[in-house]
Amino acid sequence: MSQALVKIRTLDRIDMNILETLQREGRISNVELARRVNLSASPCIDRVKRLEQEGYIERYGALLNASRLGFGTTVFIQITLDNTTSDVFDRFKNDVLNIPHVVECHMVAGGFDYLLKLRLPNMDAYRTILAQIVDLPGVIKNHTYVVIEQVKQDEGLPLKANEQL
């Protein structure tokens, strides 16, 4: 179903506090989560299950240290396609989904079509993966930006900041 057609539920303060806490501490026990959001354990777990079922919580996971695991090189690649038709977009999307080192792919508006984020062991690996990407059907131009220093990392949605807007 289209995002535009999905009815968005208004979340109350407790739901928002649950989401904020789980986003930062996914392994927190239900008892501790309930204590922090001022609920008893049973209604708290019911709310978490509802938030999961309604799609507010997509998954749980661990934030891994990329450098320690041999993925210390991060690059962003702007991709321009030869045509902006749905079949070209679909083909590119399907092809890029099969390249494991592409950890994010965003269709964007502006001077190019896609922005890719790659996590790699080194520049030799980058060169190998770049060859795969530029050979994808429809790709006519690319620009690469190598990350020198990560200043800020995605730490989840700024739920509390959104309340201040």
TrEMBL record:
PROSITE patterns: HTH_ASNC_1 (PS00519), HTH_ASNC_2 (PS50956). InterPro entries: ArsR-like_HTH (IPR011991), AsnC-type_HTH_dom (IPR000485), Dimeric_a/b-barrel (IPR011008), Tscrpt_reg_AsnC-like (IPR019888), Tscrpt_reg_AsnC/Lrp_C (IPR019887), Tscrpt_reg_HTH_AsnC-type_CS (IPR019885), WH-like_DNA-bd_sf (IPR036388), WH_DNA-bd_sf (IPR036390). This is Leucine-responsive regulatory protein. CDD domains: HTH_ARSR. SUPFAM superfamilies: Dimeric alpha+beta barrel, Winged helix' DNA-binding domain. Pfam families: AsnC_trans_reg (PF01037), HTH_24 (PF13412). Residues 11-72 form the HTH asnC-type domain. Keywords: Activator, DNA-binding, Transcription, Transcription regulation.
